[in-house]
Write a structure and sequence with these properties.
Elements: H1 3-32, H2 37-64, H3 72-104
Length: about 140
């Protein structure tokens, strides 16, 4: 009797999380490259938006096929899950997540350093002089 709301909640939550992880990963990658938040959001939508939209349309189409079944429970399930998948695929991952990262700016990556560029000097990353690698001399035991 109450199977539809539980199944709808599980599908929409899982699919929405997947699409948002995809989008946030691209936004974070662009932010780590040193781009400003608005440019990072535009680049994230350009690269990950098409993947999320195509996957959402394919999955929604598959579930919408259940709406053609003669069983009323399958019709309800197919229609509601198809609409529930389109919402996170388009509204949340392509509009809400990028716009929130633009509004919050570098604070969107607050606990980490993703909003800063990776141009700091790293002593281990300095170029080595040409020639054979230096040997480490370890003290010999007496």
């Amino acid at each position: 009797m109450f199977q539809l709301p539980i199944a709808l909640y599980l599908f929409v939550l899982a699919i929405g999380a997947d699409y948002n992880i995809l989008m946030i990963a691209r936004l974070r990658e662009a932010a780590r490259a040193g781009r400003p938040p608005r440019a990072a959001a535009a680049l994230g939508i350009k690269h990950a938006g098409t993947s999320a939209a195509a996957a959402g349309l394919a999955l929604a189409g598959a579930f919408a096929a259940l709406a053609l079944a003669p069983v009323p429970v399958l019709q309800q399930f197919g229609f509601s899950v198809a609409m529930g998948i389109l919402l996170p695929a388009f509204a949340m991952s392509m509009f809400l997540a990028p716009s929130l990262t633009v509004l919050t700016g570098r604070l969107a990556w607050w606990p980490s350093d993703a909003g800063t560029s990776r141009t700091r000097e790293d002593p281990a990353a300095q170029p080595q002089p040409p020639g054979p690698p230096a040997r480490r001399h370890l003290p010999c035991p007496p």
